[in-house]
Design brief:
116 residues, mainly alpha, 4 helices, 0% strand
């Protein structure tokens, strides 16, 4: 059985529903059910936060070290410099995520427009 063996018009939509929506939403529903019973300082929630933070850090590191698209045309120094400047702005200007993101974006876009 292959993807092309089913020719009905509804097949791709059913596949998206079963393979994309259902597996992720089940975990969301379980999280809502269990989330109300978990204390904020519990070990389980600390582990979940640590794993989520590690995943975000991994994605950012991958974007900086192994970029694709137009970001791949920039130098690694520019990408690392924008990340460091954004983090420094985050720390120095009230620990607001939007400030860090905007500073990093301005530096990155400026460097890309100057072909740095």
């Amino acid at each position: 059985m292959t993807w092309q063996s089913i020719t009905e018009w509804w097949w791709p939509y059913l596949f998206i529903l079963l393979a994309g929506w259902l597996p992720t939403d089940i975990w969301r529903f379980i999280g809502v059910l269990i989330g109300g019973r978990v204390r904020e300082d519990s070990e389980a929630l600390i582990i979940v936060r640590a794993v989520a933070t590690a995943l975000v850090a991994g994605v950012i590191a991958q974007l900086i070290l192994y970029p694709s698209g137009s970001l791949a045309e920039s130098s690694v120094i520019l990408r690392i410099g924008a990340a460091v400047a954004g983090f420094a702005a985050y720390l120095c200007l009230g620990q607001r995520v939007i400030v860090g993101v905007l500073v990093a974006e301005v530096i990155l876009i400026s460097g890309l427009s100057l072909n740095f």
